[in-house]
Structures are given as C-alpha cells and as structure tokens.
Hints:
- Helix content is 37%, strand content 18%.
- It is of the alpha/beta class.
- It has two domains: 37-138 and 248-264, Rossmann fold; 142-244, Rossmann fold (3-Layer(aba) Sandwich).
- A four-stranded parallel beta sheet has the order 5-4-6-7, with helices on both faces. It has a four-stranded parallel beta sheet with strand order 9-8-10-11, sandwiched between helices.
- 44% of the residues are buried.
Amino acid sequence: MQSRERLIPITINLLVIEGKTLSMVSKAPFELDEARAVKPTLGLVVLQAEETIEDEFRTYLQGCDVVLHHTRVPSGEEVTHESLSAMENQLEAAIRLFPTTSLFDVIGYACTSASTVIGEATVASLIEQVYPGAAVTNPATAVKAAMASLGVTRPALLAPYTTELTSDIATMLEAGGFRVSDLLTFNEEVEETVARISPRSILDAVISVGRDQGCDGVFVSCTNLRCAGIISEAEATLGKPVFSSNQTLLWHMLELAGVASDGIASDRLFCKSVG
C-alpha cells in the first residue's frame, strides 16, 4: 500500500512536501455571508442513546429555511427512573457545547420520559440559565400544545417503556388536562432495541390502541421510535390525529420560532398551525 505524502505548512506563502518546495501559496479573498445569522435557529439536545430523531427532523425539515444545531447529553443504555434522573446533572454541560456564536430562537430537549421524570419546568430552567433569550420546549410540553391545537382531549397512549414509566407519561398528560383513554406499551427498557422496533410494529400498535371508541387521538411517546413514516397511514386508518414525540417537538419548536409548518408533511398536525 502506497504511503501518503505528509503535507507540512511552513508559512502562509510556502507549502513543502518531504522537504521540497512545490509552489507559492496565495491567500484567496473571501466575503462573509450574513444570511445564516438571520435565519430562525433551532437547537436540539439529543440523548447519547438516541438514533432516530435527527433523521426524522431532516426528513420533516426539507424545504424549511432554518438553521438546526445538535448537541448530545450522556444517557443510559436502558430507560429507567435512575438513568433519566441522572441527565439533570449533565444537561447544562451539554447545552454549553452548542456554538457560542449562535443566537437560538428555540432549544428543544429531546426526551419525553426524562422531561416527565426531571420535570418540564426544571428542564426549561436549566436551558434558560445558559440561553435566557431562547424559547424552550420538550416533547412532554410539545405534545400537550399539539393535542390542544387539534382539539384532542382523550388520547390513547402508546409507549415503549416499562409499565411504570408509561404510567408516568399518562399521569403527565392527565395533569395537563387530558384524559388518557387507554395505554399500550412494548415494555422495553433497552434504547438500542427501542430504536429497532419496526415501523410496521409501531403502526399495528397505534391502530390497535387507537381503535378504542373512547379516544379521539393517539400519542406515541419516545423520540427513539421511528414514527415519521407511519403517521399519515395511521391517521387515514383511524380517522383520528396521531402524534409522536419527534413530530410534536419539531412542530412546537417551529411554532415558537415563528416558522410556518403547514404542509411540510401530510400529518394532520402539519396541516394546522396554532396561529
């Protein structure tokens, strides 16, 4: 295998390879483009174990003229009360890894269960301490705003978590004024496994729990579940709105940033804005 020649920059004017001067190096002129500075800027705090949300955000945001920056926060390989609570002490350091020159319109913390366990207000406070000028949201806050915007009051809930954590999500929704009509869970703790639950399995579960006559919508909780490709089909089958953690978080972030989201997908949520 041929070895690579090592490039050694000597000065601004010379470039040397293996001790031989090749040519003079000139500095090219450039202009600064300020266009990025005026675009709506979104910050997304992603869990270390997360494998889904970034891909789904890219899919939804095609054609949206926004800037999106990501940072990651250490998280456990399993979803438990202990691993979720531990993120509270890691969150500030993760937020400080965003580009310091960016002026964020909104920052979203991408974990439904951790926002519920740590507390939505606590999460918001931790972010606001670093970026006091940015609006803040998370999937727990976002889904309540999303369901209210479509008039859903009796959602069924699908989650991948243990029954205990699924009950916590239901309690969070009930405290927000919604009446959870039914619960269904994959009862899986391991994040790697959750990220690999097939969209077909998710669709089948959504239809199963959503057929309950007492519900007027379905919320699929967890940013690691791959829901973006099945929401429209589920809504067409059930005749009811279907919400996911990633979908509602992005929708709410765009709303808070003043960016129109109507039409970016065929999901019912993206065919109706709050304003």
